[in-house]
Amino acid sequence: MSTAPAAAASGSPAPARRRGPRQDVARNKAALLAATGELLRDDPDSATMPAIAARAGLSVATAYRYYPSLDELHREYLLNVLDQLVHYAATLDLDGADLFEAVLGKWFELVVSHGPAMVLVRSREGFLTRLARGERHARIIDAAWGPAIRELMRIEDADETLYDYALATCNALFNSRELLDLHTVARRAPSHIIRDLTETYRGTLRGIARTTYP
Amino acid sequence: MSTAPAAAASGSPAPARRRGPRQDVARNKAALLAATGELLRDDPDSATMPAIAARAGLSVATAYRYYPSLDELHREYLLNVLDQLVHYAATLDLDGADLFEAVLGKWFELVVSHGPAMVLVRSREGFLTRLARGERHARIIDAAWGPAIRELMRIEDADETLYDYALATCNALFNSRELLDLHTVARRAPSHIIRDLTETYRGTLRGIARTTYP
Questions:
Q1: N or C terminus: which one in chain A shows less Cβ crowding within 10 Å?
Q2: pLDDT higher than threshold 80 for residue B121
Q3: ipTM of the complex in this document
């Protein structure tokens, strides 16, 4: 099904390849991201660039060509997981607190299934600053949670001018590390945890409704 | 005023010193911590172990003898700042929401005055896990915030069995990075920010009061 042999036979001056360079890039990046997730899940300390490259079947030089640092590779991995949350949230036909619970439930599931792979990326900048300058990670979080948070804000009578603050609070309360922690420490079913976390955040929004940010 | 000359004259086999070794340790550690704070405040990226040792007037080998890694030195710096919060909180003769506002206000002041020096330490473990195993940082946070949080919980009718969860939530909401962020982004006086954050957290506790953790 590949079109590569036809291209090679067409007399192109490039050397014959089984895949086009663009396909190679996509495949190699996917292999690096998969290897990153596997190593981080098994043993975060072992997830060095050479170990990830080896697991992906690539040279270290190739790995660094795609991702100039381990941190960038890791960020890309996290953003890919967040993209899954965005796509899931976009399919939901729910309203009220059910919408928020569904998004939070999916996030909890992603965090638990990816484990420690979710908790190593960190920025020195706070969320509001990153959101204000349109940083990619902050924008994806906004896309994933926005509709659900606005719906809860409507229910809890929080003015929409408070949205950025509400989103930053959601991001702080439901960060991966603390959700994993709760999953470990709380001896209850995920559905109960999700319900309690939603109840907690609704209270937070009722508190936010009384404030005057910004 | 030093007692060292007398000790040296007493025929001790140790070589004469102007200070006892224990005083040297305390003085050198204090110099390293002060240098850490200065460099982190000015330019976090420049705060390497050699740069900190140089600023403290010590050799790199000496610095590493006291703190085996930059991370441990940085942790110690943060714990010293938290100790100030503990001591301040212990002096307060307030109740109700005033107590919480006073502790939060002091924390905000410490975070703003120490700046980026407060936001680089991070653990892979969540707060509840660290609290459960009595980790030093978690214990200090407990000591600093405990009475104020319990007082707010009483007002908001949250059962005291929910205390650990309430403390973890407080820790997530008021982490240094996000407070610095709010300080930068919100264009209001710190006293207004503190009042709004307290209102937000009271809402969170009202939400928590409806949950069943653990």
A1: N
A2: no
A3: 0.82
